[in-house]
Amino acid sequence: MKLNDAVWGALLALLGAAILWHVQGFPQIPGQNVGPALFPGILAAALVVCGTVLIASGLKARRAAASSSRWAVAPEWLRSRPHLLAFAVLVASNVFYLVAVGRLGFLPTAFVYLAALMWVLRVRLAVALPVALVMALLIHYAFYKLLRVPLPWGVLQGVAW
Description:
Elements: E1 2-3, H1 5-23, H2 38-64, E2 72-73, H3 81-104, H4 106-120, H5 125-146
Antiparallel strand pairs: 1-2
Helix pairs in contact: 1-2, 3-4, 4-5
């Protein structure tokens, strides 16, 4: 979705304002002029300034293109069935991962996740399934053994190595 810069600017300015409001509740450090709200407050103020610049830019561009320009324009891929299917599978894969990883475990969930994404990208199953398996194992090894991130074993709890 192509949104006018004024829309993005308004969203950025609102986010910055919300952060500025939130950091006001951060505690002060006794004896120091600088507290934990300083850095997020500076970033939030920068978001508000950038958002304001985007709003002005978007409104100027809208006026220059006459009032016929829209606030939002749907991209071409929204009219393509394969692209919509790929988008739906991507969203469904992420939801599946979030819901299933605790019960199934990382390895089976990652295998299904990767295989589904390769399937929607039209990778042959003879290639997609072994690659999904090897990549799930490599990712698991990298996170579990090298980075020491505790990934869930799920149904493979008894065969954990």
